[in-house]
From TrEMBL:
It holds the Pfam family NLPC_P60. This is C40 family peptidase. Belongs to the peptidase C40 family. It comes from the Bacteria. Residues 284-418 form the NlpC/P60 domain. PROSITE patterns: NLPC_P60 (PS51935). The keyword Protease applies.
Length: 418
């Protein structure tokens, strides 16, 4: 039940993540209220979801640039790596122009000893074959070499690119001809990758924190939370006629900022085994639907034999007393949300679609691990690839659904369900 009470909203909860009664204080006044959580890990998941606003990543019209969706995704990764390394936009422009010339932004595996977006050769110290065909690693390697060149920021694109890629060759304008397209891509992708952060004063932040915690406990959609905060902002007497669109944007920014702070605090308190960011870019399609479904289950307990198309369930054996997922139960649930049946155990799931090379992994692909990586009959674990070398999975009894790096020696292969 939600009833208006002047300074806030009185919320009597039942069957949700918040126990007891809480008050969401109105912005700018009112007492501060505490709450207790029945499932702190699940509450953290809901709060962290508020920190990632929907549609934060702008869709880039692939046809406008004469590129495929995958080529755009590769370009986005090159730009994102530059941003993560705190490099200027010029670095991304040089890198994109280079990759367009070298590979057409396609993760190539050629027969001449050169591989990946930048056609890097393992024999020349760029990394292993597997590493240079990983777009993130390849981009980092390019930038590492680029920033070692004195004055690279002020060089013509061809000169800077040639000094990184082919210092002994006269390439004239081979790279420079791609500069207009590279600049246009960076202008779009760089802006779309940045998250807005709103400045929030201490008093407002305290009230918003209470609002976010209570809303997450009740499972309120992010849009409803933003609308409520926007209504409070619009109701403040500032002597000016507020612009509804601007108020909505500010409320959205405030939720992103404060929820992000709460998310980090809860991760620290709960000891999250992986504290990295979830990849910001998820392409459209069934794989992305599966990934989003699995990510919503972060914090749900591991239960041997538990979970399926209907969501978490009580398992069998040592999982009989726990409602949650085992590894294959989580992946079955995720793909069922995308309308695809893959079976309830690793055996059927291994044969549920097309086998794909590790270098071609896409979000939503099933990734398998085996006692003998060359023998599928020894597969003992499955996760869901989410991008950037990470997966979401249900690891073992006593743990919960979580994100983890995929860098394991028992990796056996991957399947794209169909």
């Amino acid at each position: 039940m939600i009833a208006e009470l002047g300074v806030g909203k009185f919320i009597a909860t039942g069957g949700c993540l918040v126990c007891g009664v809480v008050v969401i204080a109105a912005i700018g006044g009112g007492a501060k209220y505490a709450f207790t959580a029945a499932d702190t890990a699940k509450l953290r998941t809901e709060i962290c979801a508020y920190a990632a606003p929907p549609n934060a990543v702008r869709r880039v019209p692939a046809a406008r640039f004469g590129l495929s969706t995958q080529q755009i995704a590769n370009a986005r990764e090159i730009v994102n790596v530059a941003a993560k390394l705190a490099l200027p936009k010029r670095a991304a422009e040089i890198a994109l122009g280079t990759a367009i010339q070298e590979s057409g932004l396609t993760n190539l595996r050629t027969g001449n000893g050169s591989y990946g977006l930048f056609q890097q050769q393992p024999s020349q110290g760029w990394g292993t074959k597997q590493q240079v065909t990983d777009p993130s690693h390849a981009a980092r390697s390019f930038y590492t070499h680029l920033i070692e060149i004195p004055g690279w920021e002020h060089m013509p694109l061809t000169q800077a690119a040639a000094l990184v890629q082919r210092p002994r060759e006269d390439l004239r304008d081979a790279y420079a001809k791609h500069e207009p397209r590279a600049k246009a891509l960076v202008a779009l992708l760089w802006k779309s990758g940045a998250r807005r952060r709103a400045a929030v004063d201490t008093a407002t932040s305290d009230d918003i924190r209470v609002s976010i915690q209570a809303a997450a406990g009740l499972g309120l959609p992010r849009d409803e939370l933003v609308a409520s905060i926007a209504a409070d902002l619009g109701g403040q007497d500032s002597g000016e006629r507020p612009d509804p669109d601007e108020i909505r944007k500010r409320a959205d920014d405030i939720v992103t900022t404060v929820a992000g702070q709460l998310c980090k605090e809860l991760k620290s308190k709960l000891g999250d085994p992986y504290d990295g960011d979830v990849p910001a870019v998820l392409p459209s399609g069934r794989g992305a639907i599966a990934v989003r479904a699995a990510l919503r289950m972060i914090g749900v307990p591991y239960s041997w034999g538990g979970g399926g198309p209907g969501g978490p369930s009580f398992g069998t054996g040592r999982g009989a007393g726990t409602k949650g997922f085992d590894c294959s139960g989580l992946t079955e649930y995720a793909w069922s949300r995308a309308g695809v049946g893959i079976g309830s155990s690793t055996g059927p799931q291994w044969h549920s679609g097309k086998h794909v090379d590790r270098s071609q992994l896409q979000p939503g692909d099933l990734v398998f691990f085996a006692y003998n990586p060359h023998d599928p009959s020894t597969i003992h674990h499955v996760g869901l690839y989410i991008g950037e070398g990470k997966m979401v999975h249900a690891p073992h009894t006593g743990s919960h659904v979580q994100i983890a790096p995929m860098s394991r020696s028992d990796y056996a292969g991957a399947v794209r369900p169909s």
